[in-house]
Write a structure and sequence with these properties.
Layout lengths: L1 H17 L2 E3 L2 H11 L1 H22 L4 E10 L5 E5 L9 E5 L4 E14 L1 H68 L5 H36 L6 E3 L22 H21 L5 E14 L13 E13 L7 H67 L5 H35 L5 H4 L1
Parallel strand pairs: 1-6
Antiparallel strand pairs: 2-5, 3-4, 5-7, 7-8
Keywords: Cell outer membrane, Membrane, Signal, Transmembrane, Transmembrane beta strand, Transport
InterPro entries: OMP_efflux, TolC-like
Main location: membrane
Length: 446
């Protein structure tokens, strides 16, 4: 018996823990997403990786040192035919075999770029690439914030719809109870009771559909937050107050992250063009090497001169100059391609500016329209509730039909849902307005 009670207690404890609800404000939801969503993490990893790219390019300006070694066996040595005149035997041909059966070498080489325009340009481009990824990370964070905020408000609307249905269900049950009492006393028709029961059944079906929609929307929100899907969440209603917005002139597009990202991309394309132009410049490098070689009929490793194996060293230091003269117009073609890419990006900048200005204008118009709609729907909800209350009273007094009660109930439900939808439209437009100003991160500070 004690074991059974213990198992029951533990099961209840685990179940209670699994059903723990996490209350989320919009700020908390965004902060969680920025810390856990893969998109935000990957953007930070790109910034980290850009540091390694800079190190890679910088390495091309540093000395390159390498150690080499080889061991070769020549089973058949090459025979060279030589004019005997060089050896005091004119008119004869001498066949001479050069080399040894075994050759072993070990050495160290050093190469240092003294001047290479491509290396200098690449280093500047790598630093600009890091700046590009930093801006891209900011844009990614803004995209995460926007998605989380949109889905956050959508969850609220779905839950409000569920609340409205629950209220409608409770009111309809009260009407059913009244009709049930009247029917039991012979004061109401059975068809009225049946119609009310049908209404309750329909509401239950609608509630299940809305409940499914709530679950799907919550799952979407948790996905965009990077939160485990099984986590239960709750959203405070106080987060959805409608506040006036201050409209100013069109915001400065140059401050928008999307525009800044394109400008940084433009810099990268300019460096790309300079890297191509670097092919016109000469390159100068210093090279040095030191080698040790062993040759003989026996394997050189560990062998001595008494065995016919001789060791010697040699070294060389050189200055290498490469001056490009003609590349078949390859460099010129690449430069022209780079010019086309730059002109194409200029068009992207113009189009992006127009798009960002359009976003602001549309968000402003949507907010203005939403405020009007919200005010109208608030009045409509109040009026629909008054109509419903009066119709119920009239029905109890026998002054109206059940049809009018059900119609009033439907109108009241529709009015509340329309109000909720208007609030969602407003909040979504508010997000777009904040985004168009480049101020999405202010949602974290509120």
């Amino acid at each position: 018996m004690r074991k059974l009670l213990l198992i029951t207690f533990l099961t209840m404890a685990v179940t209670g823990h699994a059903q723990e609800v996490k209350t989320l404000t919009l700020k908390q939801a965004i902060e969680y997403a920025l810390a856990n969503k893969s998109d935000a993490k990957k953007a930070q990893l790109k910034i980290e990786n850009s540091g390694y790219q800079i190190e890679e390019v910088r390495s091309r300006a540093l000395p390159q040192i390498a150690a080499t070694g080889s061991l070769n066996y020549n089973p058949i040595l090459q025979t060279s035919v030589i004019d005997g005149a060089g050896f005091g035997q004119p008119g004869t041909i001498i066949q001479a075999t050069f080399g040894q059966k075994w050759i072993s070498t070990a050495g160290v080489s050093l190469t240092q770029n003294l001047f290479d325009q491509a290396v200098f340009t690449g280093l500047k481009a790598a630093k600009t690439t890091r700046e590009f990824y930093i801006i891209n990370a900011q844009l990614t964070e803004e995209q995460v914030i926007e998605r989380v905020a949109n889905n956050y408000y959508s969850v609220y609307v779905k839950r409000q719809n569920l609340t409205v249905l629950d209220s409608t269900y409770n009111n309809t049950v009260k009407v059913k109870n009244i009709i049930q009492g009247q029917y039991d006393n012979g004061l109401a028709k059975k068809i009225d009771l049946d119609r009310t029961l049908v209404k309750i059944s329909n509401i239950k079906t609608q509630r299940q559909q809305v409940l499914n929609a709530v679950q799907l929307q919550e799952n979407a929100l948790k996905f965009y937050m990077g939160m485990p899907i099984e986590t239960a969440i709750e959203i405070p209603v106080a987060q959805f107050e409608v506040t006036p917005q201050a409209f100013t002139e069109n915001p400065n597009t140059a401050n928008r992250t999307e525009y800044l990202l394109l400008k940084k991309q433009q810099q990268l394309l300019e460096f790309q063009k300079k890297a191509v132009l670097a092919a016109y410049y000469p390159t100068l490098s210093l090279s040095a090497g030191y080698n040790y070689i062993g040759q003989g009929p026996e394997m050189p490793l560990g062998a001595r001169p008494s065995q016919g194996v001789y060791w010697s060293d040699y070294s060389a230091i050189g200055l290498n100059l490469n001056v490009p003269i003609f590349t078949g117009f390859s460099t010129r073609s690449k430069v022209r391609q780079a010019d086309v890419d730059l002109r194409s990006l200029e068009e992207d900048l113009i189009d992006t500016k127009l798009s960002l200005d359009l976003d602001y204008a549309n968000a402003k118009t949507q907010i203005e329209n939403s405020i009007v709609t919200i005010n109208n729907q608030q009045s409509n909800v109040k009026l629909a509730q008054e109509v419903l209350d009066n119709t119920k009273n009239n029905y109890v007094q026998g002054l109206t039909s059940l049809t009018e009660v059900l119609d009033a109930e439907n109108a009241n439900t529709e009015a509340k849902n329309n109000y909720t939808a208007a609030v969602l439209d407003y909040k979504l437009a508010e997000i777009q307005l904040i985004k168009s100003k480049g101020e999405l991160k202010t949602l974290i500070n509120n």
